[in-house]
Amino acid sequence: MTATNTFYLWFYYGLGNLGGWFIFFLVAIFAASWCFYDSSKRRLPAQSWRLGIFITTILVLPTVLYRFTVRDVSDIVSSPLGKLGEPIFYLGVLGGILPIMIAIGYYITFKGLKVCSRGHLYETVLGNCPHPDHLSSQNYRPHTTPKPKEDADESLAPLRPSRKRVNAWLITLDDRRNYQLYVDETHVGRSIKNDIVLDGDKTVSRESVRIKEQEGRFRLYPVNPGRYPRINNYIVQKPTLLEPDDEIQFGENTILKFVTSR
């Protein structure tokens, strides 16, 4: 008898005739339960991970049906499910292994992250969510009046005070225009209330992102959940550290390169 056949019989009739499948079933249930509990506790946007681990876990269910229909090796020939033992065996093995693999992928993806009460994803080691929405009122905020309903009304926006700039820029790919960033925080969007106004592209949000400077490093915070920016062609949904030469896409047509001089 080959090792494969031995494992096959153990899978169905090992562990005192209970079947080794039971271990695979417990492992899958544990992985699924942990993923659902952990993602709910930290309020993580892990819907696809939960769905994936749920679908793979139910792959074990045909094994349960088969095992309690074909109670013994002698029943394989007489049972209507007897000829399906091999494909059900493979499904059961996958149903025990894939949930663990998905749980590991989930853990790596969301390690050290959590979601604040306002729905922002941030690193737990920071203690509190660093999103600009949580900044104290003492920090400069450009939106001092209610947001106008029409673009034409934005001409009434109050003058903003002079602010210190830093040695970092957003520049067009053809180097024809450049926008210097400010100390602490820079607002970017289509509205004239922003520090950097991208009014030539109607697909850019009124307020698209905020770039916060901390000890010489720059982190980009998406503001509009309906229109996430892209960095190097990857959609950005959480605060992301900017690196020199990163290409940031706002809307459908506007791409600016991040450069810095230290």
Would you kindly provide a written description of the structure presented here, covering whatever features stand out?
This protein is of the alpha+beta class and 262 residues long. It has 2 domains: 3-111, no CATH class; 119-132 and 162-262, Tumour Suppressor Smad4, CATH 2.60.200.20. 33% of the residues lie in helices and 21% in strands. The chain has helices at 3-17, 21-41, 47-57, 61-69, 75-78, 85-110; strands at residues 113-115, 121-123, 165-172, 178-182, 185-189, 196-197, 209-214, 217-222, 230-231, 234-235, 240-241, 247-250, 254-260. Strands 4-3-13-12-9-10 form a 6-stranded antiparallel beta sheet, with no helix packed on it. Residues 135-155 have low confidence and may be disordered.
Short description:
By secondary structure, this protein is α+β, with helices and mostly antiparallel strands. It is built from six helices and 13 strands. It has two domains: 109 residues, no CATH class; 115 residues, Sandwich (Tumour Suppressor Smad4).
